[in-house]
Amino acid sequence: MCDPLPPNEALLTGFGGLPVVEFPRAELEPPDRLPAPGAVAWRLRANVDRGLPWEGVVSYVGRFCSEVDPAAVSALVVGNFPGEDGGLDWPVEDLVFTLAEAAHRWSGLRSLFFGDILRSENEMSWIVWEDLGPLVAALPELRQLTVRGGSTTGGLCIREHTRLAELTVQSAGLTAEVAEEVCASGLPALRRLELWTGSTEYGGVTPKALEPLLTGEAFPDLEHLGLRNSQGLDAWIPVLAEAPVVAGAGSLDLSLGDLTDRGGRAVIRHASAFAHLERLDLHHHFLSEEVQAGIRAALPRVDVDLSAPQEPEVDDHDDPTEFYYYTAVAE
């Protein structure tokens, strides 16, 4: 099933199997009663307008921990916070430090989403974060982690975490440094990994940077692999066809990318490498109906998602014969 909107066009409504509820800011009228701490995924977010008072990150997180039993919280969603001038430069260093300081109180936390930020607040490629490794290490019971941003700066070296089973990095352009740090992380329980490789303009890693992942060395027990929102996806298909990590996985997600007939024909040629999959997600693509039919015929026992076909953009000014194939999130 395809995504109804690019992920940065709307705030999360659910995460970790729970509905998302935003913890109110101090300057707003408080609700009559807050939900039970473990019944919802709590969004921490303070996208205030310029000029309005803002209590600050430390006060806001501290008030959350005093009004919502931290030990009973199982899912957190971290959204946008204003900078000192109310602008786009959110105080990420203070935020990460404050969250890490409070982490020992969230003893039951299982799911964390960092960067639930709208495009109107900040483009995905502009969302920066500090090294999140210490924060993750301070949450030893964490099972699910999603991070959005990091096309320019950031770090995700998780030296050792024995419980983390799902890791997603949503990026408009994944840097080689972040990709290498993910591959070097000690995550023996990891079963689901999703990396948005993105545009080469903002990073866009090559298969070489993900070699420890593709060989199966980094995460030998991976059950699901997602390489999503990828520019130049056609070139990835032959590489993935020979990758041991794909041979061992049950599902492969290559959606939101710029797959064309060239890559589609490569899927058909290498069909034996993908025939064992339960599911192959290719939605948001530029495949002709002929190639789509060929993929279905070549993989009759695989649940292949070929929904959300796209039309390439045409350069009306310089060269009207030149087509532009785009990813779902390009900036």
Please explain how this structure is put together.
The chain is α/β, with parallel strands linked by helices. It is built from ten helices and 14 strands. A twelve-stranded mixed β-sheet has the order 1-2-3-4-5-6-7-8-9-10-11-12, with helices on one face. It has a two-stranded antiparallel ribbon with strand order 13-14. Strand 5, helix 3 and strand 6 form a beta-alpha-beta unit. Helix 1 (57-67) packs parallel to helix 2 (92-102). The longest helix has 11 residues, at 57-67. The radius of gyration is 21 Å and the shape is globular. The two termini are 24 Å apart. The mean pLDDT is 89.
How is this fold's topology laid out?
Layout lengths: L13 E2 L2 E5 L18 E4 L12 H11 L7 E5 L12 H11 L8 E6 L16 H5 L6 E5 L17 E5 L5 H9 L7 E7 L12 H4 L9 E7 L5 H6 L2 H5 L2 E3 L7 H9 L1 H4 L4 E3 L7 H10 L4 E3 L7 E2 L8 E2 L7
Parallel strand pairs: 2-3, 3-4, 4-5, 5-6, 6-7, 7-8, 8-9, 9-10, 10-11, 11-12
Antiparallel strand pairs: 1-2, 13-14
CATH architecture: Alpha-Beta Horseshoe
Largest sheet features: 12 strands, mixed
Distance linking N and C termini: 24 Å
Strands side by side in the biggest sheet: 1-2-3-4-5-6-7-8-9-10-11-12
| Name of the top-level CATH class | Alpha Beta
Structural class designation: alpha/beta
CATH superfamily: Ribonuclease Inhibitor
Helical residue percent band: 10-25%
Number of β-strand runs: 14
Radius of gyration over C-alpha positions, nearest whole angstrom: 21 Å
Low-pLDDT windows of residues: none
Tally of helical runs: 10
Order of helices and strands: EEEHEHEHEEHEHEHHEHHEHEEE
Mean pLDDT score, rounded? 89
Q: Judging from the principal axes of the Cα atoms, what is the shape?
A: globular
Q: What is the CATH topology descriptor?
A: Leucine-rich repeat, LRR (right-handed beta-alpha superhelix)
Strand content: 15-25%
| Count of domains | 1
